[in-house]
Amino acid sequence: MPLIEVKDLKKKYDDGEMATVALHGVSFDIHEGEFVAIMGPSGSGKSTLLHILGFLDKQTSGTYHFDGKSMKTYGEEELARIRNKKMGFVFQAFNLLPRTSVYENVLLPLVYSDIPESEWDMRVTNAIHAVGLEARAHHEPSELSGGEKQRAAIARALVTDPTIIFADEPTGNLDSKSGQAIMEILQDLNEIDNRTIVLITHETYTAENAERIIHMLDGEIERDHLVQNRKSARKKFEK
Amino acid sequence: MHWKHILKTALRALAVNKSRTLLTILGIVIGISSIMVIMSLGSGAENLIMGQVQGIGSKTIGIIPGRQPSGPSDVAQMFTDSLKQKDVDALRKKENVPEANLVMPLVAGAETASVGNETYRVTIFGATEAIQGILDVYPDKGIFFSADDVKEYGANIVIGSKIAEKLFANEDPLGKKLRIKGKNFRIVGVLSSKGSGILNFDSAVILPYTTAQQYITGTKFFQRIVVEVISESMTASAIVNIENTIRNSHNITDPTKDDFFVETPADVLSRLSVITTALTLLLTSLAAISLVVGGIGIMNIMLVSVTERTREIGLRKAIGASEKDILQQFLLEAVILTFFGGVVGIAFGSALSYLFAFAINLSGTISWTFVFPWKGAALGLGTSIALGLLFGIYPARRAAMMEPIEALRTE
User: Fold this and answer.
1) 0.80 exceeded by the pTM?
2) Could you report the predicted ipTM of this complex, rounded to two decimals?
């Protein structure tokens, strides 16, 4: 059973005067443990697709099954709980809370979870360790570099131990070296922890870190293929 | 979400904008302070009035001509000429009112008194020498007029301290003449200064009621007859006997047609407390307006805060906050704001009322006791929390209903 099963997904924005179609009916599956990049130029509908997959938005028509259950059967509270428990989000703009330490930022999802408080410190410490940000744990976002901010955001996405991580242009605001480091972390999360990763990007060299690329154009899937010569951010023997 | 964390989150959000937080609660602080001051002064005034009315003596019963006023503004029936000498005589008969210790008629009026070319507006009290004990007015200097003066239309009078000061300056008024309505009266005593109570004798001339009727008012009736009972426990039965006696004297069989009424200090007290309560209520409702304005200020700032933190709300939703979580967070922020305003308002209002009490006492004329208005404090706290809920719910709902993706998109 695929983790994500999308059939004829359509999304239309209607602001009264003008209707914009963002998705023209897309269908695909994503299985647990896959690392999929959704690629396309701006306006191709890739972000809209990611938002629907991440329960942040709702489709106009078509079906979306997550973990075997149709999204439409969930209520608002359940959607929030699934986002908290099974999904992790990494955004281009980091979206860390200002004037709040890395530790507190990473802790934030736990506050909304049913994970017992006794585990919180351990989970936060582990997540910060996983992205190698121990030395910066008690710094505020304003004191961090872009790469460090994105690593803090990844730690936040990891802290509830989600099945899938949605990364929306995670390297978009970073220089290539920091971007490379972020991709290394995402690959490790996929290969070592077997976490499913859905990455949105418009750069081919970033997308080639994934095992599969879905090419989007004008709200439709143009091509869906496995990556030949997949780029490994880190050499295998180093792991 | 755990309450501890909602609270922590809300407090942190408020701490980030300290000066804004303080300015926001100002309206609530002013409103709650006003309520505290009004309630404290209200209770203080009530205590003061009670003390003064009790000073008149709980053993005295007043008989007043006319019908009992139905409200504070009903004066139409208050001044009539129904009480006469024959009523006083009837009341003085032991078989009629055995509880009576003494019966004193009272004639009152206002006249201009003069000494040489100096004039002064005075209040006239025609009474008997018993007025000293009943109203607690003893001469500071000299003596009081005697029972014989009352019997013989004597011209001996006692004057208030202010008259002595205004008309005699540094001279000793004792033995001097005071002219009222073309007649000369001899000053035998000067009253001690009693300050400004509800009954002020500083500008009063007290003289035998017989003299007052004959030479000043030219009337045959009394403004009041005061009966002092032997002991307070007899008040109830005395009232019945007094009413029957005067009805007999006036040939009244139907009590609803009474042309007089009887009043005890307790009655006066309850009537005055109706007035102070009404005043307190009026002022409190004025303070309530400032609370509503303060509440609108809170709502306004909360709406600004929700807009400013659109991104934060979006992020919180993305990582698993439900609408309920967001609603609780923003509602709690509003309630903390108003609650804090309430606490500061209570502290500030109490301090202000205490200062008022202190200042009034410093002026020395009346003794005022500071009353901490527990009711006002409880009301203030309750109101401030309610205001937070009332004016916080709309911004909090706006925050809660925000679509996560719309919120994250905002730059």
Assistant:
1) no
2) 0.92
